[in-house]
Amino acid sequence: MKMSQCLIVFFIVFSGFSYAETESRQQNAHQHGKAELAIAISKEDVIIELHSPAHNILGFEHQPKTEKQQQLLANAITRLKTTDNILIIPKSAQCKLKSVEVESPFSHKNDEIHHHEEEAHEEAHSEFEVIYQYQCGDNKHLTNVNLKPLFENFPGFEQLDVQWLSNNKQSAKTLSINNSHIDF
Amino acid sequence: MKLFKLAAKSAWNRKTSLSLAMISIAISIFLLMGVDKIRKEAKNTFLNTISQTDLIVGARSGPINLLLYSVFRIGNATNNVSYASYQDIIKMKSVKWSVPISLGDSHRGFRVMGTTQDFFRHYQYADSQQLKFLSGSAFNHIYDAVIGYDVAHQLKYSLGKQIILSHGIVSTKFSEHDDKPFRIVGILKKTGTPVDRTIHVSLSGIEAIHIGWQSGSRSSLSISAEQTQESSLKPKSITAFMLGLERKIDTFRLQRKINQFNKEPLLAIVPGSTLANLWQMVGSFEKILMTISTLVLLSGLMGLLTTLLSTLNERRREMAVLRAVGAHPYHIMILFSLEALFVVSSGCFFGVLSLYLIQILIQPLITELYGLHLAINFLDSEQFVILIIAVFLSLLLSLIPGYIAYKQSLTDGLTVKF
Q1: Tens digits of residue pLDDT in B270-294
Q2: Is residue A8 part of a domain?
Q3: What are the DSSP calls for B356-398, one per residue?
Q4: ipTM for the complex?
Q5: Which of the listed residues B214, B238, B269 is the one where a domain comes to its end?
Q6: Which among B260, B262, B276 is the nearest to A172, CB-wise?
Q7: Are B323 and B387 members of one domain?
Q8: Which range of residues forms the domain containing residue B11?
């Protein structure tokens, strides 16, 4: 009798544990100075995705607290939306920007939650996600891209891991300020 | 034009030493071009191993590790992927096709891969080439096997042959699945990829041979091959899987989605990108090879300079006579430059010629042994640049003996000095 009770308690406790486990505790790698860029080229659409720690863009990774930091964040988002600040695409490809989405880690202002968890968030890392969508008139001329403006405008970037794909080709390259050119 | 004739005649007088210098340059050019060719071919074969596969998914480890074990059969998986997660992912909207891969068994040193018939339909290599059967066809039954070209060739297997798979990648008598033999139903054509060295069986085949093996070796309650057919053979896990997408532009989006898959830590890689990353690492080795062959070329050019300088003494009177009959100092310089040009350009010519001759000779051999088609191409721009640099350097170097000869011809006059 006691044995079975023990077992029941055991099961209840462990089922509770296993429930807790379903909540994800996976953590992504996060390294300041490094960022990822993905370029996908189809017949006329081009999607460019930038994933970067906020530190590269803002110089800090916490919720902006002062007026100045708020300003910095707003400023950075505007600069990220201007593609001339990021990359150079050959003019002959006739690419037109269709949309830019900037997903800032601080854009959802949920003050209540943040106050609640402020301490935890203090240390937390945060990522920017920027998605540029282009439509290009002549993809044959889309033979290269240069990321020099990104390195110049955001000195926080040191290394950019780029992977790209177009038609049947897939490739990758690691860029830096002195080596910022990609030939597709 | 006169100078040209003069230079040719003068060079003919010293043909032995000059032709030796030429041979040394030919050898160094051959070496430099050969290394360049091997480097490019190796890269091509490497990059040609997989094509048209948008993503490869496996347990979370390093991208290069995943690529190596799933495509090149080098190394081992750190973990398996649960079959349930595989099912979840292939149900995603953007997925067009998928090929599961289950590794871990072997047969006489060749890896066994469990997969589905989709593998033969969707796996592509080189320039979107599909797998073709030399004989037979894809597997239909649990105990059917399709073998790669090298397996058939090296083990002298033909259709209908029964084979026994071993548990793990090291074959021991104790770990053979000898109660469940497989029958060869297909032999693939040579591809030049690791597929040639693989035995392909169905996923249910892999499951079937492991029934009763849960403890790592065979349990005493053995289940016969016939009984196994009946029991359900749904795999619990696979090693990795390949994905093809409806629209390639969604590749990175799906990659991110899989990498953030909450139920299981998975890793999705774009094979071409990972190959490029891997090649960046291997690249330093090829740079060393290129540096060595460049140094060999430099030593060849230095040899030429030595030859020119050593004949300077013999040619004192030749120069003095030329000066006496009214040759300008720059004529003397040009004579030397022309001579160097002769030697180096014919060295380049013979070097390139021998490279092509050897390529033509060994091409059938390489196709037979390694299944690689060695493309014999015209020199590419990079190789042209190498040749032009070699010629230019020789012209530059020839100025040294030219200058010395010119100086001497002024002071020497026609008198014979001992």
Answers
A1: 999 999 888 888 888 888 888 998 8
A2: no
A3: HHHHHHHHHHHHHHH----------HHHHHHHHHHHHHHHHHH
A4: 0.77
A5: B269
A6: B276
A7: yes
A8: 2-47+282-412
